[in-house]
Structure formats: C-alpha cells, structure tokens
Write a structure and sequence with these properties.
Layout: E1 2-6, E2 15-18, E3 33-34, H1 39-82
Antiparallel strand pairs: 1-2, 1-3
Length: 83
C-alpha cells in the first residue's frame, strides 16, 4: 500500500511511504492527514464502475442467451440424426 503523508507543519512536502498495516484503528490517524482524490473524481470513478458493471450484466445475459441457443441447436441436430 502506498500513501502520501503530509505533516501538519506548514511548508512540509508530501512524502511517499510504502507500508503494510495489519491492524488499523482510529488512533493510528489522529495526528495525520490522509489525502483523498477530489470528490468530483471519486464521483467519476463510481459512475465508470457502475457503467462497467451494467456492461458486465449485459454481456452475462447475452452469453446465457447464446448458450441456450447452442443447446437448442445441439438438441435439434441430435434429433435429426436419430430420426
């Protein structure tokens, strides 16, 4: 996990820190500032994820239709071969 850490001291430059956290509690962050992406960017990300999830649902439905069609065709071929 990589985060940018900014000290509360004015003029402090952001510093990249790579770390692994096994247990996170609120007291871990009492004196630190956690930078988040701008709200508008987070909204764009959520909208894109929603769009991609809808696309996945559409593709899943089309795949199920294609598999049903394949099954019907296979049944028809077998029926024609038997008769």
């Amino acid at each position: 996990m990589a985060i940018e850490h900014v000290s509360r001291n004015e003029g402090a430059k952001p510093e990249r820190i790579d770390l692994a956290i096994t247990c996170v509690t609120l007291s871990n962050f009492n004196d630190d500032v956690i930078l988040l992406s701008p709200l508008a960017e987070r909204h764009r990300i959520v909208a894109k994820v929603d769009e991609l999830m809808a696309l996945c649902d559409t593709l899943k439905a089309r795949l199920a239709d294609a598999q049903a069609t394949q099954l019907h065709l296979a049944d028809a071929i077998v029926e024609q071969a038997v008769c």
